[in-house]
Amino acid sequence: MSDTSSPVKDAVLRRRSYPRVTADAPTTAELLPLVEAAATAPDHASLHPWRVIELRGTARERLGAAFVEASGLTGADAERLAAKPMRASLLLAIVSVRKESFKVHGWEQDAAAAGIAHLLTLLLDDAGWGVMWRTGGHTRSDAVRRVHKLADNEELLGWLYIGGKTADSKPDARQQLDAASFISSL
User: Fold this and answer.
1) Domains: count for the chain
2) How many other CB atoms are found less than 10 A from the CB of residue 186?
3) Is residue 115 part of a domain?
4) Does residue 127 sit within a domain?
């Protein structure tokens, strides 16, 4: 194996989070082949322990209201918090759906769902969209669970905020990682 470039490695190295995006967003029809491709993520026993929820339009307003309810904030602070889901016209909620399995533990099912989210960020970026995976203190609150209509065996992992890139869209800067400090041997 060589350390040369490949299309996959190039796509991974090119991907950045876009905290500011335009109001453009992919349609459901455009998302379907990307979700299908993302579904090739590692998934022990092929449980497909995940689902994706589209939030557009007023669904984002309901999410903002749930943030406020969970926070207990009022006034201008509540208004700022309620506006957070409006940063992109499309949010994809990534949900871990834990299934009964004697050999695939819950944490492994959560990891499979996180793999879907990560691959979706790569696929959306490759398709020309700006994407940022967002979480926060209210991700697991009761109010947010209700908005997403989560079942008892489901956990929200966060949202992909998706929109168009513009010439002045600046992706988050990336620092060079010293990979050797993260690899050890036994």
Assistant:
1) 1
2) 2
3) yes
4) yes
